[in-house]
């Protein structure tokens, strides 16, 4: 087992496009359905696997292109260090002052290491100024507990 790190930062409005953050329903709309519904289904089916937006279910990062992986670690503590570095990097831009607290951020890193060590995934999101959003995720890979059928995006 190893761990992958993912980071997305961008406009809150783009993050809010939830249709592109979830896989399509297993069954398409009926062929005689509303044209706009069929078009949206086709768009999401094509875009969800490749769009850089964070998926609503963390494990679905694993179906995204390997180029979106920001780091890979054999041990949970290495992944947690990366998370801590990203938190320190973005903390000055966090919209909520309470989220910038160093003790709180250290707790997030410690908790992440423990969760990864137990085979779980970690996902955190923070509102940024202007309004923006930061999504950070760490996933266990090969296999992932939530979706073990998903292969490693790096082969």
Summarize the structure.
The chain has 155 residues and is of the alpha+beta class.
List the helices and strands and how they pair.
Blueprint: E1 2-11, H1 12-15, H2 35-47, E2 71-73, H3 76-90, H4 102-117, E3 122-128, E4 132-141
Antiparallel strand pairs: 1-2, 1-4, 3-4
Q: Can you characterise this structure?
A:
This protein is an alpha+beta fold and 155 residues long. It has helices spanning 12-15, 35-47, 76-90, 102-117; strands spanning 2-11, 71-73, 122-128, 132-141. A four-stranded antiparallel beta sheet has the order 2-1-4-3. Strand 3 (122-128) and strand 4 form a beta hairpin. Helix 3 (76-90) packs antiparallel against helix 4. The longest helix has 16 residues, at 102-117. The radius of gyration is 17 Å and the shape is globular. The mean pLDDT is 95.
Features:
155 residues, alpha+beta, 4-stranded antiparallel β-sheet, 4 helices, 31% helix
Helicity level, as a percent range?
25-40%
The strand order across the widest sheet is 2-1-4-3
The tally of helices reads 4
Based on secondary structure, the structural category is: alpha+beta
Main sheet attributes: strand count, strand direction, barrel closure: 4 strands, antiparallel
Shape: globular
Strand percentage: 15-25%
* Residue runs with pLDDT of under 50 for 5 or more positions: none
Radius of gyration, taken over Cα atoms and rounded to an integer in Å: 17 Å
Terminal Cα separation, in Å?
A: 13 Å
Q: SSE string, helix = H, strand = E?
A: EHHEHHEE
| Average predicted local confidence, pLDDT | 95
Give me the count of strands: 4
